[in-house]
Amino acid sequence: MNRRRWALLLIIGLIISAYGVPYTLLSQSYAWTGAFLFWIGFAVAAILVNIWISSQWRDPR
């Protein structure tokens, strides 16, 4: 698989997890710490994916 497909799969996976995890896995958790830890991990993953994708950009000369 090339890098473009990996990037697309990572982005789709992040979007699905952003909607799926809070409404499924964390729906029965009434403590705010579970959601807080999930969103911290999600933010780190999104930042890393953005760095990885933008590091591949080149000037098309």
From TrEMBL:
Full protein name: Uncharacterized protein
Chain ranges passing through the membrane: 30-53
Keywords for this protein: Membrane, Transmembrane, Transmembrane helix
Keyword Membrane attributed: yes
Top-level taxon of the source organism: Bacteria
